[in-house]
Predict the 3D structure of the following.
Amino acid sequence: MTSDKTTVVKFGGTSLADAEQFRKVGRIVAADFTRRIVVVSAPGKRFPEDTKVTDLLIACYEAAVAGRDFSGAYKAVCQRFRDIIVGLGLDFSLDDELAALGDQLRRAPRRDYVVSRGEYFSARVMAEYLGFTFVDPAWCICFHENGKLDDAMTRRALAAALRPLKRAVVAGFYGADSLGNIHTFSRGGSDVTGSLVACAIDADRYENWTDVSGLMSADPRIVENPRIVDHMSYRELRTLSYMGASVLHSDAVLSASERDIPINIRNTNDPDNPGTLIGRKRPKGQQKHPVIGVAGRKGMSVIQVEKVMVSDGSGFSAIMLDILKKRQLPFEHCLTGIDSITLVIRSDLLAACKAELLSEIRAELAPDYMGIREKLSVIAVVGEKDTETSDANVRVLMALTQAGIEITTINQGAGKLNLLIGVPEEKYEAAIRAIYGTMQTL
Ligand code: ASP
């Protein structure tokens, strides 16, 4: 059966860890004719104590630039790919290219080039195995020389490269600038490649294949067997990814949502499971739970500044935000009270400029009180079911109080449920468990 629909399928590292995983990918791609464009990560861990190929490459690079022996990690990379090629019974060799990587490491290694080779080799093997055309993103994912993605150019170049092809394998995670220098996205960036590809060719669906059967409603390291969410909106997913839910890179959500391309998170090891489907709106009848997920981040600090008459229109908040802007210090949340302003800022960013920042605030605003509280975490409770009639937010806060957890800040936007709650870092896990427990009763 033929179809002119296109599904972009991206496979993560665990889906490519060895030859057996490559075979599973082959079966998944063959099972649906619309799966024409395949995006791959570098091989990940085969077992818990194993090392991802990308981490081996980072180790190679770091040893090489420090003038240390990199041969152990380099040989391990070569062996991983040779084992996959042999395991798949391919009459194909990457030996020349692996040798070229060795030469680079010996001469003048460039970090992004070295680190990107895991995806490059993985895509070369996958293209050979599937009999698809290999597409090197160095030709069509375009970066500026400063390392920023050139979005418009990338869309045009990807469309031009992929539209004429019936079936292709694209290496994830990297692209190149106009001088041909390779640049990578941040870790987990093959998700971003998949999303850019799906947008550029206006795909009907973006499937992101991983090792879990969808997005979990809480971190499984904290909550035992959390519920898998069957449907969620882009906004819900973006908030949860930003706040630390680690299934999908948050930048990948942004580009897919702009074009309204549905994202389907699937499990390579359980391909019949429908996984989680993410779109602009959840289908009617699917809005069973007012809260669909909870996620959070540790390592936050709160600056609180008070001054009588802050809210009299004298521009106090604007000056405060201007001070942060001048220092290019981003803040996570900003809460204003009658005579106070509270800013939640990542502790690692604050640490670099704390003393100067406080003296600048003192000089510019002459506050009545100023204090910093550190070692906090922020938890996002997310759900787009209309909350006008729901008491979900109240119940979540009550659950924290009943568990004896101090609430340091609360931030609730209007409309949908998007509650951000600050709690002390040492209570983070207990807070997630308390909130998750309540979510099951809503
Ligand atoms: N291989 C890269 C990493 O480990 C990128 C990716 O897998 O998406 O972060």
The chain has a mean pLDDT of 91. Residues 293-439 form a domain with the VC0802-like fold (CATH 3.30.2130.10). The chain is about 40% helix and 20% strand. The CA atoms of residues 392 and 442 lie 7 Å apart.
